[in-house]
């Protein structure tokens, strides 16, 4: 082995000398292909990140699983059937974990570094708005990831290129601090006027609009403050309310990932229905809306004989409604933060602090925004008869309407763990209670010795205790 190393070193030194002398007479630009750039422009990295977020954070592995447990959907065949029965294994998490770490977060950190850099290529000029948008994407991805798993790698998660193959797991508490810092930094960066010669391009969400992204950052700060209500109590409510006046002002400000009309570029739940379709609608959710003649059910579920039909949870029932166009249409956008969610946060926070009138006003605005978002119409008659006629509102009212509004997102799973609303019972055929977290993926357990041990899907995360 020693001889081999010496010979290798000699060959390396010889190569260096040869290449060094060649540089004197060879034009090194001859091997540069202008059609195959070695640096991918920021304008191409950003939409790739957003597309990955739409598919991974708004698609099968995150939304389908948590919405199954939250009894929006019923898994009646194959993998979704076992998930409905609360059988969820470490191997079931590999795809989502890898999509987050090898895809979304890695690319977002590359984008952030490029936005902070300065070099000989025009695309490496510092750009605070790209950096801010990267921060927001990192923050929401970290938020969803830690809410599903608890402690997760971040501070040294990408050290593989330096030979660091066993990333440590940051505590969920520290991840939440990081999220708030990323969002605060984004707000500061977005407040500085953009360089007119280097504006943000490739942004599929807001086309680089700094004011829109600032509102999203404040809205996410409110979400992640309120997610800590079991830890911080009324302080969480006070903090959340402090952000809301600067956040989303209407459905036009929603943080959504758009999708195209082609099957390969379609909404992830639409693709799931097209290719697998082993989940239909749960009677828990369907009956809740049918009982209230809620107009949203005609859009979130398909109709059978003019009415939505749900299945008992974890059953192989046929003749049941599938996901509707409001959540699984071919070009339906994936929602990562909405005005409706923000107003429900405002209503809950005010209730916690004893502010009855603002809570009621926010509740009415939140429900109206949700109805408009999912149906495309104001539905004033239904709202007047069922929502606007209320003289007061309870936490159950707020969280029930927020649950209805939050279909096809991961946030309902967080809210249920925080508040226990709506009251969901495990199906009779289930193995154990509704899971409280995802298991760490099998690949991480196998290859990373720092993966937390002795946790099950019934173990509670830090903020859930």
Poorly predicted segments: 1-32
Strand order of the largest sheet: 1-3
**Helices and strands, in N-to-C order?**
HHHEHHHHHHHEHEHHHEHHHHHH
Overall number of structural domains: 1
The whole-number mean of residue pLDDT values reads: 90
Question: Beta-sheet strand percentage?
Answer: under 5%
Write the CATH architecture name: Alpha Horseshoe
CATH class descriptor: Mainly Alpha
How many alpha or pi helices?
A: 20
Count the beta strands. 4
- Biggest sheet features: 2 strands, antiparallel
Taken from the alpha-carbon principal axes, the silhouette is: globular
What is the CA–CA distance across the termini? Answer: 55 Å
Indicate the CATH topology. Serine Threonine Protein Phosphatase 5, Tetratricopeptide repeat
Secondary-structure-derived class: mainly alpha
Describe this structure in words.
With 465 residues, this protein is mainly alpha-helical. The protein has one domain (42-464): Serine Threonine Protein Phosphatase 5, Tetratricopeptide repeat, CATH 1.25.40. The chain is built from 20 helices and four strands. It has helices at residues 2-22, 42-57, 60-69, 78-84, 94-116, 128-149, 172-190, 210-226, 229-232, 234-244, 268-275, 283-291, 297-300, 325-328, 339-352, 356-375, 380-386, 395-405, 411-419, 442-447; strands at residues 73-75, 255-257, 279-281, 334-337. The strands form two sheets. It has a two-stranded antiparallel sheet. Strands 2-4 form a two-stranded antiparallel ribbon. α2 packs parallel to α6 (128-149), α8 packs across α15 (339-352) and α15 runs antiparallel to α18 (395-405). The longest helix has 23 residues, at 94-116. The radius of gyration is 24 Å and the shape is globular. The protein starts with a helix and ends in an 18-residue tail after the last helix. The relative contact order is 0.13.
């Amino acid at each position: 082995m020693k001889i081999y190393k010496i010979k290798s070193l000699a060959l390396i030194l010889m190569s260096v000398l040869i290449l060094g002398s060649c540089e004197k007479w060879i034009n090194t630009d001859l091997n540069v292909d202008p059609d195959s750039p070695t640096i991918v422009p920021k304008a191409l990295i950003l939409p790739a990140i957003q597309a990955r977020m739409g598919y991974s954070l708004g698609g099968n592995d995150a939304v389908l699983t948590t919405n199954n447990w939250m009894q929006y959907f019923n898994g009646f065949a194959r993998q979704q059937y076992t998930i409905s029965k609360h059988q969820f294994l470490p191997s079931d998490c590999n795809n989502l974990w890898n999509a987050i770490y090898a895809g979304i977060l890695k690319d977002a950190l590359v984008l952030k570094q490029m936005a902070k850099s300065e070099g000989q290529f025009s695309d490496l000029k510092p750009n605070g708005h790209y950096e801010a948008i990267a921060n927001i994407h990192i923050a929401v991805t970290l938020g969803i990831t830690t809410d599903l798993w608890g402690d997760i790698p971040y501070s040294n998660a990408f050290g593989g290129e330096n030979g660091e193959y066993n990333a440590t797991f940051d505590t969920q508490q520290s991840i939440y601090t990081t999220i708030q810092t990323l969002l605060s930094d984004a707000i500061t960066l977005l407040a500085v006027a953009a360089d007119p010669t280097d504006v943000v391009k490739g942004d599929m969400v807001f086309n680089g609009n700094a004011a829109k992204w600032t509102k999203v950052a404040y809205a996410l700060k409110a979400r992640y403050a309120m997610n800590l209500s079991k830890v911080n109590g009324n302080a969480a409510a006070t903090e959340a309310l402090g952000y809301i006046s600067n956040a989303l002002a209407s459905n036009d400000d929603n943080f959504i990932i758009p999708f195209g009309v082609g099957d390969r570029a379609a909404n992830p739940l639409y693709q799931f229905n097209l290719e697998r379709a082993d989940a239909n609608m749960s009677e828990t959710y369907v009956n809740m809306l049918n009982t209230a003649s809620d107009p949203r059910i005609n859009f979130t579920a398909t109709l059978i004989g003019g009415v939505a039909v749900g299945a008992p949870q974890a059953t192989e029932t046929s003749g049941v409604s599938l996901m509707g166009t409001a959540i699984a249409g071919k070009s339906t956008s994936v929602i990562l933060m909405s005005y409706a969610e923000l107003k429900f946060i405002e209503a809950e926070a005010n209730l916690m602090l004893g502010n009855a009138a603002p809570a009621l006003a926010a509740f009415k605005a939140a429900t109206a925004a949700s109805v408009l978002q999912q149906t495309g119409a104001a539905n004033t008659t239904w709202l007047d008869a069922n929502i606007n006629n209320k003289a007061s509102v309870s936490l159950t009212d707020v969280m029930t309407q927020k649950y209805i509004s939050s279909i096809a997102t991961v946030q309902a799973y967080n809210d249920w763990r925080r508040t226990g609303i709506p009251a969901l019972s495990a199906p009779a055929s289930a193995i154990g209670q509704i899971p409280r977290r995802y298991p760490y993926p099998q690949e991480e357990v196998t290859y990373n010795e720092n993966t937390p041990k002795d946790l099950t899907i019934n173990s509670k995360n830090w903020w859930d205790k």
